[in-house]
Amino acid sequence: MSVRSGARRYVLRAACAVVGGALVLAGCTTNTEGDAPAVEKVKVEKVDSIAAKLPDKIKQAGKLMVGVNIPYAPNEYKDPATGKIVGFDIDLMDAVASVLGVRAEYQESDFEKIIPSVETGTLDLGASSFYDTPERQRTIDFVDYFSAGIQWARQKGKTVDPDNACGLRVAVQRTTVEETEDLPAKSKACVEAGKPPVQAVAFDEQSAAATALVLGQVDALSADSPVTQYAIKQNKDKLEAAGPMYKALPYGWPVRKGDPLAAVLQEAVQHLMDSGDYRKICENWGVQEGAITKSTINGAKG
Fold first, then answer.
1. Which runs of consecutive H residues, i.e. helices, occur in 127-194?
2. Phi, psi angles (nearest 5°) of residue 195
3. Residue 34 and residue 66: Cα distance in Å, rounded?
4. Which residues contact 70 (CB under 8 A, 6 or more apart)?
5. Entry pTM
6. Is 211:235 a contact under the CB 8 Å cutoff?
């Protein structure tokens, strides 16, 4: 998954995108992150008994340093009107920070650099649609807060089957599970069957991957289910789902291995789940299909 074994959503924004190293000039689109409606914040109060468990370093700083990679609508992206980072992941993390009596300070980063920055202590955690996977658990801990899967999109009227994709060009965001795990496995099966491989066309931003599909530069797009569904919603006249979601995994916030912050974040988000505020945040962003009722640490199993 976007892996963000990952995950995230999209908004088509740039009119002209770089596809396969070439600048696409024809048929430039004007899809923007600003197409999304304003979403009301859920007000959350501090819970002293949970906040007291925060590591002293974070208590003293009064903030959580959170790594994000944008745009990945509806999970995390910039509001074009204000320039602020917004989205489902952002609202949920802000709510968790409120429970803990601190604020979340978001630091933009390349997706693949977030986990290494958490490991070195430059960031306290990441909140960027990361899939919790057994492989990633070897070096990092995950506080699970959502369930998502891989879902493909195609141009309307085109025939694309994720289970029979040999020879297709599929847009993905770079370093996501879609690029590093799912498409390679599908491609290997094709080659072993004597068929042409699946070609992953990787982009640094999810918006560019979606734009490539809208412009017909690729045959399909593969991303996390909330991201794919959002891209389709933003381009209802051009895109449609290419099959249902599959390979569901939990989204998790990556925290340094063994860091006591993980248990505090888990308790904070569980409080939001129990109070109903978590559900409200999911519904506000239209992602309630992936809502869960119990947070775990490293819940993904091999």
1. 177, 183-192
2. -110, 165
3. 23
4. 76, 77, 78, 85, 108
5. 0.74
6. no
